Amino acid sequence: MKVLFISNDPSIFDATSGVRARMRAYAALMGELHVLSSAGKDAKEEQEGNLFLHPAHSWRLFRICALARRAHALIVKHSIEIVSAQDPFEHGLAALRAIRGTSAKLHIQVHTDFLSPWFVKIGSWRTLRMSLLNRYRCRIANRVLPAANGIRAVSERVKASLIARYDARISEPSVIPIAISTDVPACVPLPKHPSTFALIAVGRLEPEKRVEDILAALKLVIKRYPMVGLFIVGEGRERKRLERMTLSLDLEKHVVFLGERPDARTLMGSAQAFIQASAYEGYGRTLIEAALARVPIITTDVGIVGEVFKDGAEVIVASVADPAALALNISRLIEDNRIRQELPIRAEVAARAHLATVGDLSTRIIDDLMRVLQ
Is 138 helix (H, G, I), strand (E, B) or coil? Predict the structure, then answer.
């Protein structure tokens, strides 16, 4: 089987990256695996056995056309049988265009819950550009997904939303989650801070993560519990705005921005609670990681919440865009020692039970691609 992945992860060209390791594992089960990805000017064509890496250099405005042309050429040159795109948006459209005039099959991966109403919701002028782009992406998905010979969703939530939206117009999606190691690294202490109840938030600082709701919730909580602090791990376009918001809410003594940390998982276990306020998630890797770290979890109803973790049993759930509910949940953890002790035990059990059903992801992904050919 000869497969072409169309990706947007330039770390594939780093021989030591986790992405490269996954591609090696996939390639070991195939005849040939080609990966086409946008990359910096320094990235070059590479080959490791039957793994072939192809960088694409283009301006963002012309990326779809550039990827489609390059992918089509690779299909013809290497007799590619399946083209798998990492999303049903720009990369999916490039893949759809690339297979025209060939016998290659189209496979689409859906990692984002793009059918959530929050995906296109305009919250403010600040997020208007993102909202309009996501509306355009939904239109692309409406064209790409019905044309796909196979679809991979990362959670039951995403699969259910696809079936509800497209019904019989699409192939039934396979649910294959994200690869997560069950090994729990030793805890690393959080930086010294006067707070005695530390919350930790881990993830990209982007609009859809709604970290501003956590800050607003913290402002409400410290009126009664001034010992609460928040550690924010991650980088993104929202960082400067969130730092300004921290100052405007007079929270600078309670909030620490740690930036991008490769040891984020090791920091989780040193906090008193993990908190997430995302507007939407396809899966929710950090929820699994927090559960394995045995830290109580406060989250919005996104991703694998409801599928892996139940509200009140393993995690505490709040509605999206509801800082008051987040504040109440934080206070609940502070006040109820029993919940604070029992939730992480049950969450770890649920996370490990879920991961035990996942099996070998490389084999499952290859089997999913084989079904596309059949």
Answer: helix
